[in-house]
């Protein structure tokens, strides 16, 4: 502007011209300084998501691998062990309902950080329990942290990575499957290597949870990217890219933007949506099969004559199938208008796996483990559909809390019934018949939930 001083001062016809004062050098400077911060924050979030996902199942699958030793050490009956395997979905349902309110008050990242700390504390305390009550209480503490992570992971993905929902959902679903399978495969040999005590074998997984607290602490402390209440997600999509973030930092009216976002996207009433109910049923039925598998599948193989270490590895095979498929399925599902065909394929794999366990559990053990692993990939599919069945971040958090809480409530009776049937029948015929029967309504609910519609349209 110093090259043309006469233009604004000597021409009386141009004093009202606005190109010159409207283009100061400040915005370009702000763009260059905001970019590194946005990239650093996004990478930190990715690390946090992966570490959090790695901790969402080891507390459960490590117990499944050592369930017989824990039952003996704590003098549990088969029925009590069935209750123990039902504690995870019960805690997920109860504490998952509180996650949206906590996120609105403290921020989603803060609640996830607290959840990781709860997982670490519960897994440190659990091995020192002398009785069933103390063991259940410590397990519930860890499961409380897992519950809020379950609900808020899709929320954080939708808020900070709105253009990469399928990719990021696949990434943390893959990490979740990796943590699940790793705990199932390593717990028994690790226990034997550390002296043979089931208490040591369970407690060692607390170190992974402590590690997950670190990146979330950094995310919470980064106030420049602190997320406002969950009810106003529209102002946070800026964090996904530096340029978008810069564009949103120019206006200095955060209160007005929050008001506008609430006006433009009223919170949907999820309970009035048929799709939300179908998704909750689908989530609950797949969770029933998953927790029966994680809690009882090693025992099924051990009763069939398979060694304890091999039974743990077979469970790991089932869980590890989710590592590649949990990354592929959300990406494929995100490109499809309807996800019903994927639901049917996964359901048929489950039917074949349960039929194999009934007919020849030891002879075809590896094949049945693979088929059940494919069937268990209904979980990342359900998470993907949660992100696709709502248009806004506020809709996603409500749908995530509703579908997961109601779904986990639906899944509570399954492991208990399996434990009771196993104890009273003395075999696996009746439990396997129950598991097989539950696959059919799961497929029906999944096809309904996979239709191309959103809860905002229905509510």
3D structure, described in words:
This protein has 459 residues and is an all-alpha fold. The protein contains 22 helices and no strands. α3 runs parallel beside α13 and α5 runs parallel beside α7. The chain is globular. The N terminus is likely disordered.
Low confidence ranges: 1-37, 226-265
Range of helix content: over 70%
Please tell me how large the radius of gyration is. 25 Å
Q: State the shape.
A: globular
Number of helices: 22
Strand content: under 5%
Summed over residues and divided by their number, the pLDDT gives a mean of 79
**Class per helix and strand makeup:** mainly alpha
In N-to-C order, the SSE pattern is HHHHHHHHHHHHHHHHHHHHHH
Number of strands: 0
Largest sheet: none
In whole angstroms, how far apart are the ends? 55 Å
């Amino acid at each position: 502007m110093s090259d043309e001083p006469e233009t604004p001062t000597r021409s009386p016809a141009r004093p009202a011209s606005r190109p010159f004062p409207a283009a100061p050098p400040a915005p370009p400077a702000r763009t260059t300084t905001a970019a590194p911060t946005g990239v650093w924050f996004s990478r930190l979030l990715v690390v946090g998501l992966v570490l959090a996902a790695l901790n969402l199942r080891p507390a459960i699958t490590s117990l499944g691998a050592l369930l017989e030793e824990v039952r003996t050490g704590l003098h549990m009956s088969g029925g009590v062990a069935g209750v123990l395997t039902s504690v995870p979905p019960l805690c997920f349902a109860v504490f998952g309902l509180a996650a949206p309110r906590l996120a609105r008050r403290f921020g989603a990242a803060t609640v996830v950080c607290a959840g990781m700390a709860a997982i670490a504390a519960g897994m440190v305390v659990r091995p020192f329990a002398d009785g069933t009550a103390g063991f259940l209480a410590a397990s519930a503490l860890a499961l409380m942290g897992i519950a809020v992570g379950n609900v808020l992971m899709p929320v954080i993905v939708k808020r900070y990575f709105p253009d990469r929902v399928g990719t990021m959902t696949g990434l943390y679903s893959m990490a979740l499957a990796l943590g699940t399978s790793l705990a199932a495969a390593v717990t028994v040999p690790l226990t034997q290597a550390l002296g043979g005590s089931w208490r040591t074998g369970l407690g060692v997984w607390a170190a992974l949870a402590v590690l997950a607290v670190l990146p979330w602490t950094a995310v919470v402390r980064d106030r420049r990217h602190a997320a406002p209440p969950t009810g106003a997600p529209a102002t946070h999509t800026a964090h996904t890219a530096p340029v978008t973030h810069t564009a949103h930092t120019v206006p200095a009216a955060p209160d007005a933007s929050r008001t506008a976002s609430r006006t433009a996207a009223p919170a949907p009433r999820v309970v009035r949506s048929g799709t939300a109910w179908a998704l909750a049923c689908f989530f609950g039925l797949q969770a029933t099969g998953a927790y029966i598998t994680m809690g009882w599948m090693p025992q099924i193989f051990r009763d069939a004559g398979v060694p304890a270490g091999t039974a743990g590895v077979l469970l790991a095979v089932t869980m590890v199938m989710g590592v590649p498929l949990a990354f592929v399925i959300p990406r494929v599902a995100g490109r499809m208008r309807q996800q019903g065909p994927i639901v049917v394929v996964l359901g048929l794999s489950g039917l074949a796996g349960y039929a194999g366990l009934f007919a020849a559990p030891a002879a075809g053990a590896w094949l049945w483990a693979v088929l059940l692993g494919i069937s268990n990939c209904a979980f990342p599919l359900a998470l993907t559909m949660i992100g696709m069945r709502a248009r806004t971040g506020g809709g996603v958090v409500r749908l995530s809390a509703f579908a997961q809480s109601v779904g986990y409530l639906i899944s509570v009776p399954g492991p208990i019934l399996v434990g009771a049937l196993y104890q009273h029948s003395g075999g696996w015929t009746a439990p396997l018949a129950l598991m097989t029967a539950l696959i059919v309504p799961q497929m029906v609910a999944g096809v309904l939930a996979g239709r191309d519609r959103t809860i905002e349209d229905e509510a």
